[in-house]
Specification:
Structural class: mainly alpha
Low-confidence stretches: 1-5
Largest sheet: none
Number of domains: 1
Number of helices: 7
Number of strands: 0
């Protein structure tokens, strides 16, 4: 695509705040996940800490999802509707091919390889928020999980694998932007214009 979307793609303050919240609480919830195994005991500080970080993450994910529906026009997912799946997937394939030539075309928000990575991240963290909220609601500390609750706990633990995959994809994209001279990462980290 010949249009330069980068200038129109500047994140607003709300987007930066939501990204920061998801980053901070997502990473801390992920890093404290191994400590949550103490939920089976009466004293469960690891579970309590993980639960608190997870609740904060769930609130930020909910806010991000609502912002994608109700926020300013350029940050809404409505720009994808009706979704031309063939064109959307074609933009992803084109991006993958162009990476071999050390370039990546400018795309509208939510399109191409960056759109896939963003969608994957939102799906992973939404999954974690949903399953974690169910555990928060129904899991009784001091008792082992059984039946359907055990299955939900196991499905929640998929995040131990999916979150590092998302982080690797996302950070690789940020690094690619930095190496190839794009300023998107500087806008997020240093709040530059």
């Amino acid at each position: 695509m010949s249009l330069n979307y980068e200038e129109n793609d500047k994140p607003d303050f709300t987007t930066l705040l939501l990204h920061a919240g998801i980053t901070i609480f997502g990473l801390t919830a992920w890093l404290t996940g191994d400590w949550a195994g103490d939920y089976k005991r009466m004293s469960h500080p690891g579970f309590s800490l993980h639960k608190g970080m997870g609740i904060c993450l769930a609130l930020f994910i909910l806010a991000r999802l609502l912002y994608g529906v109700l926020g300013p026009e350029k940050f809404r997912w409505g720009s994808l509707i009706p979704l031309d799946l063939k064109a959307w997937l074609g933009s992803v394939v084109e991006d993958l091919q162009s990476l071999l030539k050390m370039e990546l075309p400018d795309r509208p928000r939510f399109w191409g390889l960056k759109g896939v990575v963003q969608l994957f991240g939102l799906l992973v963290f939404s999954w974690m928020a949903l399953t974690g909220s169910l555990l928060f609601t129904f899991l009784e500390p001091g008792r082992k999980a059984h039946g359907l609750l055990w299955l939900i706990k196991e499905m929640h633990e998929l995040g131990e694998t999916l979150i590092p995959i998302f982080l690797a994809l996302h950070l690789t994209g940020v690094l690619r932007d930095a190496i190839w001279g794009q300023k998107r990462w500087r806008r997020v980290v240093f709040l530059e214009k």
